[in-house]
Structure formats: C-alpha cells, structure tokens
Amino acid sequence: MIKEPLLHAANWTHAGDIRPDFADLASRVDIRERIDACSKAGFRGMGFVFVDIENALAKYAASDLNAMFADGGIEYLELEALMGWSAGDDKVVDDALRLAETIGAHQIKAVGEGDVEAPAEPMAPAFGRVCDRFADLGAKVVIELMQISNLDTLAKGRTVVEGAGRANGGLLFDSWHVTRCGIDVDEIAALPEGVFRATELCGVPREMVVPDRFDEMVDHRMQPDTGDFDNAAFVRGARSAGFDGPWGIEIVAAAHRALPVHEAVQRSADAMRAVLASSEAD
C-alpha cells in the first residue's frame, strides 16, 4: 500500500478572512472550526501563529485543545513566526517554548531580521542557541528565506544553518519566496541532506502582479497547481535534497480569504495532491 503523504496546512491556509498584518495577526475563526476543516480535507499537519494558540488557551483548557487535535487526526503542529531571536531576545523564545510545550509542537518557524542589510554570519550562534532550547521537545526550528528579510538568498540561509550546525535546525522553502528571491530549484536539489527541513507550496505568477512586494506577497498567491512556478519540479528537488514531508501549503491571498474556510482548505488539499501526483508522474 502506498503511504498517503502527510499534508500540512500552514496558518494562513485556514485562518479565514484575516489579512496578515503585524499589528493584528489573530484569526477570527474559532480554532475548532479550523481543525475540523483541515481534518475533513485530509490534512494531518497544521500551523498557527502564536497569538492564535494564546487565544485558544484563553477559551479552552490545554487538555481540551490537545484533544481537538488528536480527534481531528492532526499529528504535526507548527508555530510561527519567531522574530527577535537573532538579537538575543530571550522573552520571545521563552514564550514560544511555553506554547510549544503546551501543544507538543513539532516545528517552529523563524524569520530573519527586518533590516535587509543585516549580515547573516553573526546570526549563526544565536540560531544554534534557539535550536538547543527546542531540542528537548523534539521540535525542529526552521528559518524561512524571505524576500523581505535579511535572509533572502540560499547562501545567507546556509550560512546561518550550517554555521549553527544543529541537527534540529534547517531551512524552510516557500514557493513564492523561492521565486521572488531568485533561488534555482537545481540549487535546492543539490543541498546537503538535513538543510532542507520544511516547505510551503503556493502558485506564483512569473511577473509581479502589483508593484508593492508586501501587497503581492499577502494578496496574490494562488493554489500550487496553478501559476508559472513549477511546483512539481520543486517537490522533486526537495526529495533530491533528502526531504520527504510533511508537505506544507501556504495560501496567502485575498481570493482565498474570501472563501468559506472549509471550501478554501479543501481546495488547497486538492491542489497539493495534484502537485504531488504530478511530481511522481513527470
């Protein structure tokens, strides 16, 4: 029997009608509905921003929340996005660790600095310390390469991750950022095993849809079986680098947010399966 790939729905895929805004990231959709939508679509992994777990724990006991995950067949949990870690902000790491322990998180998504000119080399020791904090939980810490951060190239990301040298640390590759950062899939395929640790697929148009890169990033992504970026080739490159899931999807788009949550999540699951099937057939 062929094993069903573990599909992972990153936070914005199921957060409902909330546009990412650093001033207010909280979903307006009850976490129970989000879990139900992902469970029915066949997702076994879910990601959440930290505030959504804080809000859920204000409404539900931790034991009840964890029972919801278990009852929904959610086996893999991610928290995002860890910021300030490279400057030695112990509080943000402490808060993230507390939430990760509470829900048994498997993965913490970290991002680089907003100052795009900040050098990567000094971040490696700090990343190593962060990885060590989560190692006892058996949790990975993954850095998402992003066009809007100082870690916007594969070389910079490798500098931090390989400089830290931690077994539970690695890079997260997002289709949109891979495209907009100009990262070649062949470069990804040639990575040493253990560097590629997480993925978020989406559909990406070849040319920018709007001139503002933040607006494009949060309003104009598509399902991964559409767009100009070859997600099937991306999946094959990931496998060549030693990665084989969980296969994450992140749809951050105005059109996606406008749909009912169950419909939006089901569309994403169907698109992910189509891409994975295509990656095997090509």
Description:
The structure is a single chain. The chain has 282 residues and is of the alpha/beta class. The chain has a single domain (7-281), classed as Alpha-Beta Barrel (TIM Barrel). The protein is 43% helix and 14% strand. It contains twelve helices and eight strands. Helix 4 (90-103) links the parallel strand 3 (76-82) and strand 4 (107-111). Helix 5 (123-135) crosses helix 6 and helix 10 (231-240) crosses helix 12. The two termini are 21 Å apart.
Structural key phrases:
Xyl_isomerase-like_TIM-brl, 8 strands, 14% strand, eight-stranded parallel β-sheet, IolE/XylAMocC-like, Sugar phosphate isomerase/epimerase, Xyl_isomerase-like_sf, 12 helices
